[in-house]
């Protein structure tokens, strides 16, 4: 007997990817684009939006076809579906801005093998109705974009003295060149991971304190 699907949509359905299971700061997924394209805020935003579109589109289609895809070829089918939407994104960015396309480089095509997208397809879209899959994918996409922007904003401000290309500090500012280099990506990512872990532990301590007081 087939297992009945849970079609209830809650706040957790959307917010799961924003905080509790953030794909970057919690699950550490998609690290290649996170470290490679976040040397500026505009690159980070573009990659985040591109990934969000692929998440939404592929998740919707996989959810619609979930009962039609043979179990034996489901992973291959998911990859073909994801690759189709990545190709659409690739050509769209190339048509809109060649400079942005060249800045993102091969990492647009590498969205195909982003384990976050394939993981959501296998673990969520293939097991839930389209509306619920879309809500969850949107939360994951926004969480991923937020994480990229966290890195991109810090790296651009410190490494170039600008934000989204607009100068912030004038000609006297001495940029921290290391921030726009690969090493800067690791440094900023490590700092954000420390902050999120501290916030997580602080929240857990706060939740445990009332229980301890009632004993």
Percentage of β-strand residues:
under 5%
What is the CA-based Rg, rounded? 20 Å
Largest sheet: 2 strands, antiparallel
Number of H/I helices: 8
Strand line-up of the largest beta sheet: 1-2
SS elements, strand count = 2
**Unreliable sequence segments:** none
Helix fraction, binned, reads: 55-70%
Element string (H = helix, E = strand):
HHHHHHHEEH
Can you walk me through this structure?
The protein has helices at 11-20, 31-36, 41-64, 74-96, 98-104, 115-123, 130-160, 182-213, and strands at 162-163, 166-167. It has 215 residues and is mainly alpha-helical. Strands 1-2 form a two-stranded antiparallel ribbon. The model has no long low-confidence stretch (mean pLDDT 89).
Keywords:
215 residues, 66% helix, two-stranded antiparallel sheet, mainly alpha, 8 helices
């Amino acid at each position: 007997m087939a297992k009945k699907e849970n079609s209830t949509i809650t706040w957790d359905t959307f917010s799961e990817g924003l905080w509790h299971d953030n794909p970057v700061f919690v699950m550490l997924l998609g690290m290649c684009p996170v470290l490679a394209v976040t040397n500026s805020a505009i690159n980070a935003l573009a990659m985040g939006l591109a990934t969000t579109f692929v998440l939404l589109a592929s998740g919707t289609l996989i959810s619609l076809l979930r009962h039609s895809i043979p179990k034996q070829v489901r992973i291959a089918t998911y990859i073909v579906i994801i690759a189709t939407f990545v190709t659409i994104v690739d050509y769209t960015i190339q048509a809109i801005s060649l400079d942005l396309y060249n800045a993102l480089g091969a990492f647009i095509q590498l969205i195909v093998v982003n384990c976050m997208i394939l993981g959501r397809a296998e673990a969520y879209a293939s097991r839930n109705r389209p509306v619920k899959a879309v809500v969850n994918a949107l939360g994951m996409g926004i969480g991923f974009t937020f994480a990229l922007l966290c890195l991109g904003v810090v790296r651009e401000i410190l490494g170039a003295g600008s934000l989204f290309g607009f100068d912030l500090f004038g000609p006297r500012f001495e940029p921290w060149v290391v921030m726009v280099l690969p090493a800067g990506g690791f440094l900023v990512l490590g700092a954000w991971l420390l902050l999120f872990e501290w916030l997580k532990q602080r929240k857990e301590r706060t939740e445990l304190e009332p229980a301890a007081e009632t004993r």
